[in-house]
Give the backbone structure.
Amino acid sequence: MVKIISKQEACDLIKDGSVVMFGGFLAWGSAWEVTDLLADQNKVKNLTLVGNDTAFADKSYGRLMTNRQVSKVIVSHIGTNTETQKQNNNKEIDVELVPQGTLAERIRAAGAGLGGILTPTGIGTLVEEGKQIIEVKGKKYILEEPLYGDIALVYADKADKYGNLFHHGVTRNWNMIMPMACKTVIAEVKEIVDELDPDNITVPCVFVDYVVKSDYDYLAKGLKKA
């Protein structure tokens, strides 16, 4: 059975300098409570944040940017977080912008043990600078390397006692692919049940190390904060 831990125990697993993959899309479908506690305590520093975006300056993992707990971000955009933009303009943070589809496939490649992916996205642009270009049947592709993390901090609507996860609707976003690419996986969940219907499992228990029970209705809190 999976180990059920407290929010504090989850935060304690995240160390200075960790590469943390945050599930969520503009904070929707993110691990709100663990992330809020991480920001409230403001102890862990020098994180590398990997995710779709950096949310908003006052919400979820975006608060870590405002606290200056992050030294590098690997994301597809920073347009909704004014604090990330400011730190980037002032050269106070390392920002690696990755096309959204490429970012997803780099994470998948890490989870599948692949040496990388070939993509035409970015050919002829700044994206290809410093990267290996491979030609296949007369077409050029960029070799994008796999992207690994130390910690995956993800959200799920349900978990069972074994650690299998179920995601409903848009909460699937990045939460389904990040667990395969990280050494340690923490899932914050709305509900814990004895067993999930196998047809409803979106992330198998073999990829999940810890489960944290959320104390609130995710959608209600999300609507309130959005």
Notes: The longest strand covers residues 149-160. Confidence is low (pLDDT under 50) at residues 222-226. The radius of gyration is 17 Å.
